[in-house]
Amino acid sequence: PELSEEPPAEMVKMTKSKTFQAYLPNCHRTYSCIHCRAHLANHDELISKAMLFWVFLQSFQGSQGRAYLFNSVVNVGCGPAEERVLLTGLHAVADIYCENCKTTLGWKYEHAFESSQKYKEGKFIIELAHMIKDNGWE
């Protein structure tokens, strides 16, 4: 019989640990997923706070609540882009979700069709309902 470097299947133990792709430094105020505590963003990446209401073009399902706009985020996955009419006009956006627990957190602005909204391109919206503040908040 030939020797194999791989152990028999019954001897392979598969485990899935809860490790995040990125950990933000403890010395900075951060935002984490309220559902699983994965780090999402450093407070320094916050652009502005806003009251947001979005309407999905196809389903007309709405969601209302406060949200923050960030330059960059971590531990977040991105779905496919689609055009949606938001309060500020037509945008191409992609839903974003926590890579750890898969909860939809908000969206990424892929393209703004109005020139006054171009500053949002490449930025991320995360609803406050899905975030918790960590590290050094008073």
From TrEMBL:
> What's a Pfam family in this record?
Yippee-Mis18
Name the domain of life: Eukaryota
| Keywords from the named record | Metal-binding, Zinc
* PROSITE patterns in the record: YIPPEE (PS51792)
Please give the InterPro entries that the UniProt record associates with this protein: Yippee, Yippee/Mis18/Cereblon, Yippee_fam
In this protein, which residues make up the domain named Yippee?
Answer: 29-135
Question: Zinc among the record's keywords?
Answer: yes
Q: Which GO terms describe its molecular function?
A: metal ion binding
The entry's family comment says: Belongs to the yippee family.
Q: Which PANTHER family match?
A: PROTEIN YIPPEE-LIKE CG15309-RELATED (PTHR13848)
Protein name per UniProt: Protein yippee-like
| Record gene name | Ypel1
